[in-house]
Amino acid sequence: MEPIDRKTFLATAGAAVAAAGAPATVEAATASGVFLSTWKWGIEANAKAAEVFGASGSLVEAIEKGINVVEDDPKVMTVGYGGLPNAQGEVELDAGIMDGTTRRAGAVFSLHKIKNPISVARLVMEETLHTQMAGEGALQFAIAMGFKPMQLLTPQALEAWLKWKNAPHHETFWLHENHDTIGMVAASGGKVAAGCSTSGLAWKIPGRVADSPLVGCGYYADDAAGAASATGNGDVMTNYCTSKHIVQKMGEGMHPQEACEDLMRYMARSAPNLRSDMYCVIAINPKGEIGALSMNAKQPLQYALWRNGAGALHAAPHFM
Ligand code: GLY
To answer: Using one digit for the tens of pLDDT, what is the confidence trace for 102-152?
Structure first.
């Protein structure tokens, strides 16, 4: 197994801070918020999150509004409005959010017709005694909270679905895949938060729910340790409680990058056949130090980092 080049990763992350003019203390370094998101759409999400954090001082608010940017963008066909539908042509969304200070989470599963599931998830967390709501009940809750149902299937997503549907031997998910998410973790002043939103696997069996909206899988946050989020094959990653694993390891003293490595090492050791698929994670500790890792070089992770008023897209190291 090729060891990942952690030294290079840490040096690169350090250089990014230095380039932005690193403040002397952790408090100063994280005062305006450090935002870390998956994939290239994380750039705009982080910028919005930083703006909202500047105005509200709330990491949860920042994560919600940052993720909304990606949910609203029809060009991102794996999240929110314009997401690729399930096997019946219905866009079915999952999202979850967690406040590391209260250790409370909120999530929605298999939500139809509402383009901002992360906002509904936040209301589950803040306006109810529940943590997770699914399907028709989640939709009725969203409507009661003032969300307007709408058609989420864009012409582009419809065209892609028809192409899949009409292909003579089209792939189905009574065993198989294709996916991605927006995951975001954030830190400021010793506090952390995390969120995750997805339309899930394209052409999935209706009702399928994977890691993204599950507490401890798609996201987890605890001020005593840090926050993490996952993207990739959620049907598999769910079995590893990836985000909780990483946060727990940070709580035991690991650097976020080491904690990400620890998870991948465990996954690779426990099931060597997992090595070729897409499994990616991001992590942050309360000091604003970060980790990002993909399982292998064939399925590389890009992550967006916002720190000290500047954002950039980076290539994450890979585990093997
Ligand atoms: N990780 C996103 C999904 O598999 O639905």
So the answer is: 999 999 999 999 999 999 999 999 999 999 999 999 999 999 999 999 999
Q: 256-270 and 6-19 helices cross at what angle (nearest 10)?
A: 150
Q: What is the pTM of this model?
A: 0.92
Phi (first) and psi of residue 123, to 5 degrees:
-70, -35
From 30, 38, 78, 181, active-site residue? 181
Ligand 1 centre to CA of 210 (Å) is 5
The residues spanned by each domain of the chain are 6-315
Q: Distance between CA atoms of 214 and 227, rounded to whole angstroms?
A: 14
Task: Enter the tokens of residue 193.
Answer: 């938060």
Pocket test for ligand 1, best of 231, 236, 274, 281 (most atoms within 8 A of CB): 231
CATH number of 6-315: 3.60.20.30
Going edge to edge, which strands form the sheet with 34-38?
132-134, 104-111, 93-99, 191-198, 182-188, 34-38, 302-307, 310-315
Pocket of ligand 1 (CB under 6 A): 179, 181, 198, 200-201, 210-212, 231-234
Residue 101 falls in the annotated catalytic set: no
Residue 249 · residue 277 · CB < 8 Å: no
